[in-house]
Amino acid sequence: MSVRVRVPEGLSARVPAEQRGPGLDRDDVRLLVSRGTEVTHHVFAELPRLLRAGDLLVVNTSPTLAAAVDGRIGHARVVVHFSTRGDDGRWAVELREPDGRGTTRARAGTPAGTEVGLPGGARLVLEEPLSGRGERLWWARVSGAEVLRVLGEHGRPIRYSYTERDQPLSVYQTVFALPSPDGAGSAEMPSAARPFTARLVAELVSRGVQFAPITLHTGVASAEAHEPPYPERFAVPVASARLINAVKAGDGRVIAVGTTAVRAVESATGPDGVVRAAEGWTDLVVTPERGVRAVDGLLTGLHEPEASHLLMLEAVAGRAAVDRAYEEALRGLYLWHEFGDVHLILPEEAPHSERCDGNSW
């Protein structure tokens, strides 16, 4: 079996964990743990016992935006997904077909110059495709209202048809989310961090696990089109860079919470393996050929076969380990997508004799 196998529809998480039964919380999802090709099964609440003092979790503080807005092209209804705000004031957007169950079909054949009417009298005009790889995402300019005001008054979280119903924006915020001074945020939730609760964070801290905040504002998902991720805004603060370097110099492990955290940290890491404070735009695509320089492990959701994120997982763990983990996830009926179960990739442990020098016996 291969990670390229199609995920059965019945394994999509339709509602958040805390809505599946009385007394449940966000950390009541399952946790698949990989160490090389060794796989074990846990619940997320066990995470503090799976990590050790001195480990470092790199977490994304980007808040999730209410990035889906209803619009009209003439008399036709559309849904606009606001993905990324450019430095020139334009937004990268995607037009979707509404179907009452989320918005899962990209609207094809929409030419440059198309005007979309938005609530409150605003209008959006498509100007040019985001890249030469296709016309799913466009740079667009909005007039008649500030986009963040439109999102705040008329937006809702982006939702796809595998979920059961619309949810309030609070359901899509992680415990690490912080308001951005300029109102920026992520079009879709940095979902690997969703299972964390304040209680669980406190327990991790009490056990000596440290946290390094970074920011990467995610755009809309691109799995359906086999597209690599496009440039996204990120920031790695000075304090976080220093902390990562200190942990790497000691006995701790640097574990990224989410593929967004990997992309941000690796974008700030030089060929010498040293992480330096950085901010701006990153177009880095982490592949097995490129490898990782700063990250030792990864906590992430379960990804669709078309997702470019799987290449990042292979860069961290290797193809054999990822294939083995996904075989177990399918066999164990783990749940996919943003409300689903989670996969923790840890480095293989060296034999005890290799970890002890001659004076340790």
Search tags:
S-adenosyl-L-methionine; alpha+beta; disordered C terminus; 7-stranded antiparallel beta sheet; QueA_dom2; QueA_sf; transferase; single chain; 9-stranded mixed beta sheet
Description:
This protein has 361 residues and is an alpha+beta fold. It has two domains: 9-64 and 171-349, QueA-like, CATH 3.40.1780; 68-156. Helices cover 19% and strands 26% of the residues. The chain is built from eight helices and 16 strands. It has helices at 47-50, 147-154, 198-206, 238-249, 259-267, 309-317, 319-331, 352-355; strands at 30-35, 38-43, 56-60, 68-73, 76-85, 91-97, 105-106, 115-117, 123-131, 134-143, 210-216, 232-236, 254-257, 278-282, 297-301, 342-346. The strands form two sheets. Strands 2-1-16-15-13-3-11-12-14 form a nine-stranded mixed β-sheet. Strands 4, 5, 6, 7, 8, 9 and 10 form a seven-stranded antiparallel β-sheet that branches. Helix 6 (309-317) packs across helix 7 (319-331). The protein starts with 29 loop residues before the first strand and ends in a 6-residue tail after the last helix.
The CATH H-level homologous superfamily of the largest domain: QueA-like
Radius of gyration: 21 Å
Q: If helices are DSSP runs of H or I spanning 4 or more residues, what is the number of helices?
A: 8
Oligomer: single chain
User: How many strands, which pairing sense, and closed or not: the largest β-sheet?
Assistant: 9 strands, mixed
CATH class of the largest domain: Alpha Beta
What share of residues are in beta strands?
A: 25-35%
